[in-house]
Design goal:
This protein is of the alpha+beta class. Helices cover 50% and strands 12% of the residues. Strands 1-3-2-4-5 form a 5-stranded mixed sheet. The longest helix has 19 residues.
Length: 214
Amino acid sequence: MRLHRRTFAQGLAVSALAAATLGAGLVDRAHAAADVEELMKPGPLGEKFVGNEDAPVTIIEYASMTCPHCATFHLQTYPKLKELYLDTGKAKLLFREFPFDDRALAAFMLARCAADDKYFPMIDVLFEQQAVWAKSNQPAQELFKIARMAGFTEETFNACLANKEVAAGVHAVKDRAALEFGVRSTPTFFINGEEVSGAQSIERFQELIDPLVN
């Protein structure tokens, strides 16, 4: 299989990552509400969301696929959040890319290149197996194992990682979040425009969402 480190690096050399500092642990900062109209504008690749499109509460999550705190949220808190709010029509979650490194960029690109119904299943598996592919000496091979489950071939895998339009689209979401909305760490959430930073517990989400739906 021709998924060598050189190919992997060349495929990701389509744009430079902006410098950012990874936030650690549970942080809940008080910020002025973002301009909701601006915040709701989708990026060039379109929006990926879970829940009722017309739900009264919109949760926007900025995440990096190599961020351990993002994985913690998705594995421990997200299932309950989905059960209580997304599946019941009370809220929708817009998932937005904020890659901190080339491996996170590659993971997001592959999810974007997958079929629409495979995007979130790929995100789920990438978080579940984060410790494997994100720390591997052969990240391309490990990512290909995941991508193959979503229907990728070696050809489509390499083509995706070399796709400048997809890379630029992912970067556009990250750059706008950093420059216009002050996102500096992941996960960062906006709940109807109000910023909440850190891998919060389900109890914290309940405190923030329940007043908006009851």
